UniProtKB/TrEMBL annotation:
It comes from the Eukaryota. The keyword Kinase does not apply. InterPro entries: EIF1AD, NA-bd_OB-fold, RNA-binding_domain_S1_IF1, TIF_eIF-1A. It comes from Dichanthelium oligosanthes. It holds the Pfam family eIF-1a. Residues 21-70 form the S1-like domain. Signal peptide: none annotated. GO terms for molecular function: RNA binding; translation initiation factor activity. The keyword RNA-binding applies. This is S1-like domain-containing protein.
Amino acid sequence: MKAGRKNLRRACDEGAAVTLGESIMQVLTLRGSNVIEVMDGEGVKSLALFPAKFQKSFWIKSGSFVVVDAGGRDQALESGSKIACVVSQVLFHEQVGALQKSGNW
């Protein structure tokens, strides 16, 4: 691991817990301009906003897992907004494995 990335990984390891109102979703496609298409565990697809603060520090691709804040999902869809949730964290491969073993998946 490079010296510049160790602090980023350490910060991600500290905040690996998923709280109420957040859910783990898989990235399907990158739509451009900070918008990604994600799918939850039930197979429901929606659009999520990838905040600009993550752009330079995280790189995601199809198949990656992210934690999204889907608290206002139903309300956003009722109002006619296409973007239903916001990415709050990108999960690394080690974090995905740890969550699957712990039963929080």
